[in-house]
Specification:
Chains A, B, C, D: It holds the Pfam family AP_endonuc_2. Chains A, B, C, D: It comes from Streptomyces roseolus. The structure is a homotetramer of 388-residue chains. Chain A is built from 14 helices and 10 strands. The first copy, chain A, has 388 residues and is α/β, with parallel strands linked by helices.
């Protein structure tokens, strides 16, 4: 049976990174709905992220997205974060929102466009140096929409070349995290469509290159926890972009669509050492809160990851291994389900209270008056969102 | 064996409706790429549509989208169209691009929002009266993103009520075409997610309500031609929104992703009387040309529908029926494939030449200088696109 | 807040029907694994079903499959069931395991084959008269594997004709439940592929025809609870064939693959009156226990349905409606999740104990010695399974 | 423009391997339909395969499946093949049709079962030595049905160990081809579910291990031609198991469900050197002819591959590259489609006639009287099929 004190310690020590863009407006291709109080610059995003950390106690890191979070002086931004108990996390590159990138960025047929894209990636490493960020997270929208549009193999060559140059620029304590995605915004081929492609490139690049698993980026029916376990076995799991989906890359709150899947993922993480600090797996959110209130949605998402983690930590691994070795399908399944069926909310409330936090972060945030304050104060200016 | 003269006559008589928004800018949630020469108002869209009709000879109708194509005087717009050999086609409503519609339009929990949405739909019928359009095409983005967000059944009640009011407003020669879509922009429930839901509502409304099949709006694995055949059998197929997809609602050029599927659809249409004028099936395009040149893409799309139709008309229905009755699977399949494997481009070139058209619409358009002219002339002002 | 006494009463009164074939061997096209103690005839299947009811208290009904459960005298079988506290449930027809049905049964191009199939269906109604079964459950494997193989519309005509004849034969208290399935064993078209097709036929047949939802028979991404809610609204939900799947029609234990989905389904059922006796919704299992022990798997499945039902009954519908009316997405979602996150196993243990049952049916069955007994006694003869 | 003489030479030199089991009975889990004239032993399967080669001229190789094609003396079988103009191709292992393999074979938790499985694989290499087969094709049904059932990572360890032992046994001119499959017969995890897993294992094993792409083994939406291009770029594409599907692993005739996809695959093969003898890509069929006549279905399948290859060879690669380099999406797409839209049947008829073959293999087979002969002669005995 799991040791409850150890479970609590693990939960208290967990770190979940929230994305700056989760605090801004977002939407679909049909409409971006605006909301009162949305931040207008990176500083206000950090103010909101600070609330999430204040009430959950496990979200001190904030991912930035360049150029959406571009500032004149990253040292100032970093200090601003530290003053609020935060630190700057992964730097996310953007090679998809410039008219030059219509046919791709690092895979574009035109070397001038590729140069522009690689220069942006190198600039991101410069920013990492300035912010102290350890992770460069690369997601490429590159691909094609029509059969014949471009040469699949030539694009891989260009991709490999760009990655090699960026990899060579990384400092000793910096990583390149390569994300994959089945489709969107490319609708025929995507240049890094699956974990296999990302893994193959990371293998060639070297130990500082690892795969990022975005839980919304797979084909229907894909067993994500298998991929997670496989990558952990190979030492190639760099981290997660958590969110959930019923259909495509819906970017809903993690755990909202299939909490059992999230539990199964966290079970593989926990069982295979992925919660150990040494494994250096980054647990990041990457979500769009299109119709719901943004800060409470981030809080709920952090809590959903916590609850899945708690359940994963409650799995009786000895009993599980024994039933598996005996080939007792139902008994092994029952061990796993017993943990999943447990209501871990009381346990997490205890963990919070033991750390001096309010047991219910959602209620605490609601009572804090922050939402009313930002709605009143943040008027005028341009709200942050996709592309801003 | 099909009578070639009859096939040619059918092809010459076919009508394919192009959407005004296909000439404007479009994109994904990540980026809308702008292109030189894109229209800045509904009149310029008609100018472009006129080129498509000029070179293909089968695309005289243009669907409008309200409010994107709002003008002060629709009689003027209608005359402008007629002067260019065009006529105004289906009126498409828009109940998804106003901040009020964050949680839905005709299914919104707040009756004030529903009133606003229904008023817009009634306004669309007013516009139909003014333009002489016969079809009101309704697509609702309504739905929810999270389990529990709203009451599925209550939303159906609200939907039914709104549809009934609009249906009651239709003139004798007007139809209500109800589109369905699996998901996007709603990511948990969609209020009209599949043909069954649309069919059930149309059945209750009456004979002037019919289903529209958008070829990109289905779950993976859905057999679209089955739905088409079923709806034709029931007299409930109002028309198509043609496009193609590899993944979700990719809105690629029709026939680009799976030309065999398009052929199978047109085979069911042709075999079940759907090409007859009396069947009144509207063959409309609904596409987004995100990375390719827009007018040539519409021309190519029209030609793709023509080619699929030509192949469908070449199916030897007698031989097919005989093989089917004999239970000879391979022979029946071979009859269908024989038509599909035929290169119908020479036949279509003949059809065009017999009508005094250039045999190659793409080449004719390229040679016309139109693209260069609009790129030069259409500077300043705001380009039309999603939402404009 | 839900009234716990009422919740308990509802749980105690719930009835879950188990399938006779769930006790026999089953497998995939690659292999049927045999297991010790598997029944060799319908009587031994009832013996096993009696154990499931003995330990769960909510599974008195057993679905039969004809001809797998054919006996000389159904009155004897019925008495045998009653003596064990059971009753015979839905009669399932089989028009797919005869060489005559290679190209279909009721939709076959050859009228002689259709006659044979319809005669079998009529025989099933005769058996219902003998057993007192109220439900005729029809699933047709009919369809085609290749484009062109047969005429989609003609097949619908034949289907409609067959259904009408069978419907006409039903007694006043008998129902025809029409199941749909996306694919398998047909791989191009299926003649009843989706709920819309089943619904349209049931509507034409009349009030005694209703739709059965098999939870494993949908395209990826289909929102099953929407269909359930829609059918309940229309009075056309006849019942469920419960099972679960990660991929296609995997026929795993219900609740094993996506327990949250099962909860959402049961939430729609409970909220829309589907648990009321008057609604007459049949909650049936339809599963294949290919690798796990069969009787404990059925017990676990029954418990999974109970747990999902318990959670659904715990949803605070007033709070839900209030949050929905207020348009508070996160609050409404939280009300639903609060019920789902509750560990309902203690409540169900109480319900069992109050009825004089062992609180843990799995443990009680294991302790009963039944498995050892049947393994020892049921030697010789032919084990029952798919097709036997 | 492609040189027609070279295209013809390439088509005449193409080799397509047919599977012994394609000539036997097959079916779904619901029913195996028997057909008159089906072979009763490996020799009769070769007799049928000889007809396919006789009429197509490009199918001299026959894949065997052990133990379905077990004979006492493989030298005799090999001679029997040679006497009919055939040679024995890939040896396919079977570690899924023994009761011992209920929970897996090389990944089974019990080392005794793993030993049994590995011994079978080694026996297959012995058979390769006897038959002169160069390829060992491994497909593992291994996996789990329920979360928790077994340890995903431990299973990978066992898999790696088994593969290493078998790899070590290979002769200098022998290859290990590792197939992957999303699901079925395992319904939760599959131990080699995707190309990435197969690729990672092959990379560790060494140059004699390569990936096999079965065109029916992917998640919905997977871009297969991308995988093919990627593996060719890495020198890791061992071959194909060709078939087609609308849904899951339907095992329909290749090219029947999506002929455009087959063309796109063959385009990547042709463009990236995969048709060169040096590339050593095996073009194998792996199909089940459940409802259609078997030998004509194999002939049709071979022709479908030929037609897709012919179209791929007709792609004007210079024009394609020029349009791609220019970023002209529609022009590049048009170059590809121009080849696809071509009716290549006349060209293939010419290729056949120049080689002294009948231009229409289907008609030639029908006229040969073979089907009538085997229906009359092959009576008594047990028909071959899955598992026999």
């Amino acid at each position: 049976m799991p040791d409850i004190a150890a479970v609590k310690a693990a939960l208290a020590g967990q770190r979940i990174e929230t994305p700056s863009w989760g605090y801004g407006n977002s939407g679909t291709r049909f409409k971006v709905f605006t909301r009162a109080g949305v931040p207008r610059d990176p500083y206000e995003k950090l103010d909101d992220a600070a609330r999430v950390h204040e009430f959950t106690g496990v979200a001190p890191k904030v991912s930035l997205h360049i150029p959406w979070d571009k500032v004149d002086d990253y040292a100032v931004l970093s200090t601003y974060a530290k003053d609020r108990g935060l630190e700057l996390g992964a730097i996310n590159s953007n090679t998809f929102q410039d008219d030059a990138y219509r046919l791709g960025s690092v895979c574009h047929p035109d070397p001038k466009v590729r140069r522009k894209a690689v220069d942006h990636l190198l600039e991101c490493v410069d920013i990492m140096d300035a912010t102290g960020s350890a992770d460069l997270k690369l997601w490429f929208a590159d691909g094609t929409n029509y059969p014949g549009q471009d040469d699949v193999v030539a694009r891989q060559d260009r991709l490999g070349e760009a990655l090699a140059e960026v990899y060579g620029r990384l400092g000793d304590d910096q990583r390149l995290l390569l994300e994959y995605k089945l489709f969107e915004p490319s609708f025929y081929t995507t240049d890094v469509p699956d974990w296999g492609t990302s893994y193959a490139h990371c293998l060639k690049l070297g130990p500082k290159a690892q795969v990022v698993v975005d839980t919304g980026h797979h084909a229907p029916g894909t067993n994500i926890e298998f991929i997670v376990a496989f990558l952990l076995r190979e030492g190639k799991l760099g981290g997660f972009d958590f969110n959930s989906r019923f259909y495509a890359d819906d970017d809903l709150m993690v755990g909202a669509a299939d909490p059992f899947q999230l539990f199964r993922i966290m079970h593989e993480v926990a069982k295979n050492g992925g919660l150990d600090r040494a494994a250096n797996v980054a647990f990041m959110l990457d979500q769009c809160h299109n119709v719901e209130a943004k800060i409470p949605a981030v809080i709920r998402s952090v809590m959903n990851v916590q609850e899945a983690t708690a359940k994963a930590l409650l799995v009786d691994l000895d009993a599980l291994a024994a039933a598996q070795a005996a080939g007792d399908v139902l008994a092994a399944h029952a061990v796993l389900m017993d943990a999943y069926d447990t209501d871990v909310r009381p346990l997490l409330r205890e963990v919070r209270e033991e750390r001096g936090l309010h047991p219910d972060p959602v209620a605490a945030y609601a009572a804090s008056g922050w939402q009313e304050r930002i709605a009143a104060e943040r008027v005028g200016g341009e709200q942050a969102g996709w592309g801003a």
